[in-house]
Structure formats: structure tokens, C-alpha cells
Amino acid sequence: MNGFNLIIKPDQEDIEAAEVLVDGTIGSNEYRFLLDTGAARTCVRFDDYTSTFESLGKNNSSGVFAKSSDDLITVPNIELGPISKKDLTVVRLPEETQDVRNLIGMDFLKDFCCHFLFDQNQVLIDSDSVTEGNVTFQELFCDSKFHPYVDVEFGDVEDGDFEAPKLTARTVWDTGAGITIADLNFIKKYPGFFEEVGRSQGTDSTGFTMETSTFIMGPTLIGGKEFGPHKVAGVDLSAVNATIEVPMNLILGYSTLSKANWWFDFPGKKWTITKLLSVK
Prior knowledge:
- By secondary structure, the chain is mostly beta strands.
- The protein has helices at about 105-110, 185-190, 240, 255; strands at about 5, 5-10, 20-25, 30-35, 45, 55-60, 65-80, 85-90, 100-105, 115, 120-125, 140, 140, 150-155, 155-160, 160, 165-175, 180-185, 195-205, 210-215, 220, 225, 230-235, 250, 260-265, 270-275.
- A hairpin with a 2-residue loop joins strand 7 (about 65-80) and strand 8.
């Protein structure tokens, strides 16, 4: 297989949420990573091996809930399936943050065409199975840090058919998010598309955990495909939006991503949904 397997770790409290993990190597050492297209840089924990690398400076970043400042180091190589990158500069977490996962970010994936097959828990690399003849491609926007953005359209469903979209939300396509997140300010502005249903615990990329409200998000169109109502977490994204190039209305996480197979040509700046798996 010209790709790698996805290891899906379900959330213990929410059956719709899960972590998307992958196994790779740094040097000759085996590591398990969170696959995180919402992260600009690959990130590794402080351990006996990574502690041997000299710090090159600091990396400042913002999670959904908190900010962090961590060391930058250069590792000799990272391998994930057929992808290998040499002398990659990555973030090293502080020694005290042992509960935060290693993660693969967009600095590692941005040069490849990736077919995310959530029905098979696999990612194919540079797949030639998707051609102009059998799909309609969408233009892919990536910011300067290579975060992939896709549009989500909201509208009404009449007699089972999705009516003309009334609203388009700018969203980051984020395999590192266990559940889709909607900005609370967006929810307050368009309450007709969201119904509050409860509370849940959420953890961001910095390891910070807090309780969030949960909502049922109404029907949407993504890449021309209809997604039925499903659960999302409501979080105030104003702080993180103030630090990024393109503000987000939504962060599409596993609870949405797992309902389809997605093909992203990151260097070619195009994407499509190749198969809708579930709309429920």
C-alpha cells in the first residue's frame, strides 16, 4: 500500500468523537502521532531521544483554549508510510507536558496528495484513482502556514432536498480535532442552524482541557455533498482567530470528517469528496 494506516481511538465520553493516530519513526525510533492537519508544525514530546537535540529557538502557537511557547529542534528524519522528510525542524514540548501527544502537522503533509479513506482507516499518498472524469474538484485554500480551508454551506432541507445555501462558513479541515467545533459567536449570530443539547469536555493541541457546550448543527453542504445534522462543540474562537491569518467559523473535526472519504491535493490546491459514508 502506498500510504499508511489510521488508528482510530474513540472518545470515552462521546461516541461521535475520536483521535486519528498514526505510527511512524523519528530516526530509528518508533513513535505514535496524532495526525493533525490543523497544526502548522510537527510536534514531538520531550523524551530521552528528543532531549538530545539542541534548541534552535522558540515556537509560539495558539490552541483553541490556550497559547504555548516551545522549543524548535531539527531531527534527522521522520518517516510515515512512504513519506520521509530529512532534517525537519519540529516543535519539542516541555518536559513537564507528558500528557500531550506527538503530532504530524502540515509541514510534513503539505507536499503530497492524500486520499483520506475513513471507511478503510487508511491514507493513500499520491493516489491516481481520482481524475477529472469522475469527480468535481473544489479549489483548496491554504493559509501561509498551510492550514487547509474548505467552505461549509448552510441552508434549508425541503422534502429531502437541500435548498439554495443561505450561508457559507469558512472552516479549517482538521484531523487533529476529535469533534467539529463551531465558534460560539457564529452560533449566536445564526442560532437557527444550531440546537444546544448538552455539555462535554474538550482538549486542545496544547493539552488544555475545558468544558464546552454541545449543539446539533443543521444540514450542510460540503464539497457539493449533503451532510445531515450532527453534534458539534461550541467554543469561543475569538482569541485564536485574532492570532491567525484567516479567521474560522468552524473547525471540521473527526465527527464530520468520518462521514466521508476526502481527497486533498495539497500542492495542487484542489480537493474533493470521493465517497459519502454517512449523513446521520
